[in-house]
Amino acid sequence: MATTDTVYNTTTTEQQSKTRKWLIVPSENLEKIRFAIKVIEVLLSFVAFVMEEVVSNCSHCGPLYFFEFVSCTAFLFTLLLLILLASPLHQRVGINSWPTLDFGYTTAMAFLFLLASVVFAADNGQTSLEQGTVAFGFMATVAFFADFGYFLKVRGIPCRKENNPPEDHTSTPEIEKLNSNGTE
Fold first, then answer.
1. Distance between CA atoms of 110 and 118, rounded to whole angstroms?
2. pLDDT, tens digit (0-9, with 9 covering 90-100), for 148-160
3. What's the angle, vertex CA 122, arms to CA 116 and CA 123, rounded to 5?
4. How far is CA 79 from CA 16, 39, 72, 83, 115, in A?
5. With contact defined as beta carbons under 8 Å apart, do 60 and 123 qualify?
6. Where are the domains of the chain?
7. Which residues are listed as membrane-spanning (predicted)?
8. Residue 8 or 136, more confident
9. How does pLDDT run across 86-108, given as a tens digit for each residue?
10. How many CB atoms lie within 10 A of CB 155?
11. Nearest to 142 by CA among 114, 163, 168
12. Distance, CA of 183 to CA of 32 (rounded, Å)
C-alpha cells in the first residue's frame, strides 16, 4: 500500500500543488519593456487625473472636462489592460487577438491624450496646478506614443499580419489537381 501511495502522490499531488503565477511577464502578449511602459502610462494618467480633479475653478470648463474624461479613461482602461495582459486572466476572456486590441487601444489613447492635453493647455486658467496637470498630460502622451513606437518596432502592425497572411500557392488543392492531370 505504501508503494501505491508513493506512485500516486508523485504523479497527482505535484500537479495539484503547483501554484499558478498571477504575473506572467514576459509573455506572448507583453514584453518586459512594454510592461514597464504600461505601468508608467497608468501612473502618469492617474497623476494627471488626480491633479485635474483638484482644480477648483475653471472659466471654460469644456477643456477641463474633456481632459478629465481622457485621463480617467486612460488610467482605468490601461490598468485593466495591464492586469489582463500580465496575468493568466487574458486566457479566460473571449478575445483572440490581444495584440490588435492592445495596438488599437494604445494608438487611440496616444492621440486622445495628445488632443486633450493640447486643448487643455490652450484654454485653462494658467494656475500652477493647471499647468502641472497639462505637463502630466503631455508626459502620459509621450508614454503612450513610446508604447506605440516600441510596439511597431518589435511586432509591426498586427492588423496587417492577420488580414494578409502570406499565401503559399504551391500547396493549394486546386493547383495540386491541375498538376496531377487527372492521374489520381
1. 12
2. 999 999 988 887 7
3. 90
4. 31, 8, 11, 6, 21
5. yes
6. 45-159
7. 35-52, 64-89, 101-122, 134-152
8. 136
9. 888 877 787 888 899 999 999 99
10. 14
11. 114
12. 56
